[in-house]
Amino acid sequence: MESNAIIYIKNMVCRRCIIIVTQIFQKHGTEPLDVQLGKVTLSKPISKKELEPIQQELENCGFEVIDDKRTRIIEQIRTAVIQYVHYNDAPKKKNLSDYISSQCKREYSLLSKLFAETNGITIEKYYIAQKIERVKELLIYGELSISEIADKLHYSSSAHLSTQFRSVTGLSPTQFKQLKNPQLKPLDEV
């Protein structure tokens, strides 16, 4: 398969995004072979003319086709972190740097430097921000205790979770839980 049969898409952050992107391609007569967060694989390349209406509809839904190599790598890193934090409930067998390297198929030090230069924060700080959003989400659901959330997100202890949560939000998890109208950020805005 030629490499241009892969289309990279920015702002895909959840399973619903996969469904929406799949439907947009199908609506325009292009059946994707595979759709993952940040990437659509087609059986054959499509022309710019065929891509234009798809691209327009993607943009109307808040997505963006990425054609710049640097931006594509940054988006792969963001997607890998989001998958690692939000969609991977299995026990962590790989540390974050190994996971990102395997997902992006590049050396972590290169990825880390590029991410920091482009976004002004390190991958680790971005990872912590994503984890805190996940903690907020789980606190709002109210189904798990702080200890269970700490375990689920692989914190060394609930005290570590609480300390990190307070340093990022200014509130303890308990104070956040007691807010009348707690707010979550969309994952693509974290």
TrEMBL record:
One of its GO terms (molecular function) is sequence-specific DNA binding. SUPFAM superfamilies: Homeodomain-like. The keyword RNA-binding does not apply. InterPro entries: Homeodomain-like_sf, HTH_AraC. The keyword Transcription applies. It comes from the Bacteria. Residues 79-179 form the HTH araC/xylS-type domain. Keywords: DNA-binding, Transcription, Transcription regulation. This is Transcriptional regulator, AraC family. It comes from Phocaeicola salanitronis (strain DSM 18170 / JCM 13657 / CCUG 60908 / BL78).
